Write the C-alpha cells for this entry.
Amino acid sequence: MSKELISSFTSTIEKYEQKNLVELLEGSSMTASKFKQIVISELKRSPKLQEVFLKNPASLFASILHCAEIGLNPSQMIGEFYFIPFKDTITAVLGYKGLLTLLMRSDKVKKIWCEIVYQGDDFEYELGLEPKLVHAPNHSTIRNSSTVKYIYACAKINDDVVFKVMSKQEIQQIANMSKYKNDLYFNDSKDSEQWMAKKTVLKQLAKLMPKEDDRLKKAVSMDDNIEGGGYLIMDENDTVRFVQGTVIKEKSNIYQKLMQNNGTSISTLTGVTAHNETNSLSNISTTENIVLDL
C-alpha cells in the first residue's frame, strides 16, 4: 500500500506543480519543482505521515498549500515548517527558522537574534522611553533547561533595536495554553538549544515588528490558532480553510476524486468539516483534480 500511496500522491502533486504551486511560491526562493520533491521525500520517510494521509488526506493537502503560500521550505531537516501527525490530522507547525525567514524578508529588518539568560548571568533590562538591555553571560555556571531564567529576542530595524524579554514562567504559561502537549519546551534531551522556547519569544516580538509581507501576518496568526486547537482542511469546494473545533464526520472528499481519476481504489477515507467555525485561510482554489528546528 505504501508504494501505491506514494505513487498516487506523486502523480497528483505533479498536476498541481504548475497549476497551484507556481503561483503560491511566487516571490519565494524555492521553485515549485523543488518544493514538490521535498514534500514527496517527507511523505516517503514518514510511515506516520502516510498513515494519517490515508485517513485524512485533506488535512495534509491543506498543510502543504499553506506552507507553499507562506513560501517556506517543507523539509523537516531545514526546520522552517513541519507536518506533524496528530491522531487523524496533520498539524501544520511553523518552525523557529521559518519565523526568522519570514521576518528577514523585510528590508527594514537588518538582524534578529535570541539569547538565553541562565542563573548566574548578569542581566538587566528597562522599558519605557529609553529601553535598554544588558546581558553578561557567566559560562562557569550550569547552563541547561533547569537554570533558564529568561529568554529574549532582539531585532535591528533600520537604526533602532527592539526587544522582547520573557521569563521561563511566562513562556511555560503560553506552552500550557496550547491544546496539544509539546514536550520540547525546556527539554534538554529533545531540544537542548531551547528552539521551541525561543520561537515563543520571537513570535511575541514579531507582533511588534513591521509586517510588510502578508505572509508573515498569516503565518503568525495561523500558528497561534493552531496551537489553540485549530487545524487546516480542504473543504468540499477544494478551498483551504481553518477550523476552530472538533466536529468530525465522514464525507466524500477531494482525495477520493483524485484516486478515482487515477484509477486507484481506496476504501472510505475520512474527511473533516467544521460546525460554523471555518474561516477562509486564503483564496486558494482548485479544479476537479488536486492533491508538514522548531
Remarks:
- Strands lie at 81-86, 89-94, 109-118, 122-126, 132-136, 148-157, 160-167, 231-234, 240-243, 278-280.
- The CA atoms of residues 119 and 147 lie 5 Å apart.
